[in-house]
Amino acid sequence: MAFDGTMVAALCAEIKDTVLNDRIVKIAQPEPYEIILTIKGKCGQKRLLISANPSLPILYFLSENKPSPMNAPNFCMVLRKHLSNGRITDVYQPSLERILIIEIEHLNELGDLCHKKLVLELMGKYSNVIFCDEDDTIIDSLKHISSNMSGLREVLPGRKYFLPEELVKSNPFEVTKEDFMTIFKKPTSVAKGMTQLLAGMSMVMANELCFRANLDSDAATASVSDDIREKLWSVFESYRDDINNSAFSPVAVYELDEKTPVEFSALALTCYSDLFVKDYESVSLLLETFYSEKNLSTNMKQKSADLRKVVSTLIERNSKKLDMQLKQMKDTAKKDDWKIKGELILASQYMIKPGDKEVVTTNYYTGEEVKLTLDPELTAVENANKLFAKYQKAKRTEEALTGQIEEAKQTLEHLESIEVSILTSKSEEDLSQVTEEMMEFGYIKRKGQKKKASKSKPLHYISSDGFHMYVGKNNYQNDELTFKFANGGDWWFHAKKMPGSHVIVKNEGKELPDATFNEAARLAAFYSKGASNKKVEIDYVQRKEVKKTPGGPYGLVIYHTNYSMIADSDITGIEEIK
Question: Taking the model in full, what pTM does it have?
Answer without folding.
Answer: 0.60
